[in-house]
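STRUCTURE REQUEST FORM
Protein name: AraC family transcriptional regulator
Source organism: Pseudonocardia adelaidensis
Requested output: structure tokens
Priority: standard
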Amino acid sequence: MQIYEYSAEELEDVTGEIYVPVIARTGRNFRGRSAIHELGETLTLSRTHWGPISLLQTDRRAAKATADNLHFCVCTAGRCRFRHHDRLVEPVAGTGMLAETRSPYERISPTETRCMNLFFSRDLLPLRTAEITEACARSIDPAAPAMQMLSGYLGRLFEVADDLTAPQRLDAGHAAIDLLAMALRDVAPSVPGGDGPEDVLLDMMRTHVREHLAEPHLRVEELARRHHVSVSHAYTLFERIGTTPGAYLREQRLLAARTMLSDPRYAHLGVSGIAAVVGFRDLRTFERAFRRRYGMTPRECRCAHSRSGSAPATRKQEMPAR
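Status: completed
Returned output:
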């Protein structure tokens, strides 16, 4: 577990580093605390305790988000107002709500608040694009059976995560997302039974990318050809999720490489072998891209994980033994 404690002056830097970039306004004596479990490369579970605060995610800040992530929050204490996708939510204790990190939002908390947070890659949630967007900024009733199951599970997982192995934490995180999907299906009755053809096509293309990363010849032109669309239309589709086909393909390759570098099951593979497995034909191109994305070389990433099991972070403390 990683512990972050920070003042008002440090708040924007910390939230940008561990959550998403925002504009923050607080009182002079604000203190914040976040305790974070890394369940997987694109999956974290955390508890936050903040004083009164105002957070604004503008279009420009949202564009700086480095990944297409989702944020599920369970308010456990305090009051707040949350505006997202032109919907306003005023959750009470125990309420859950979902947000897209690449879309603008505003959160105002006039009191101290405590929250449980699940941050994860959008690709992990087994719902269609339109279903996810429609479910955002809608209160999930604390009394709903699915929400009770999810809230209880997240609380228990937070307590025992340090005692789990890395594969167990990942499996537990995926189980939490499955429970979330069950809770979200009841939150917005207006969600259509199927996406429009453009959303379906985009989902098919994203799935194709993830399932064919090892093919070094997979490029934007090839992706468009296999789905019978023009290259310009492929770009238009990926604009829906704030990226380009090429950037999405590279991001998925780098995520896969980072996962393999941190997994002892792939210790027998050298860096060049991992680069080839995720579709990079040139080792130096892979190393440059990896360093730009993660601030370290692939070898440094592997060494950091072999020493500590997680990437280094600033203002970090280890949770004392229970």
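Reviewer notes: The first helix runs from residue 8 to 18. Residues 308-322 have pLDDT under 50 and may be disordered.
Form closed.
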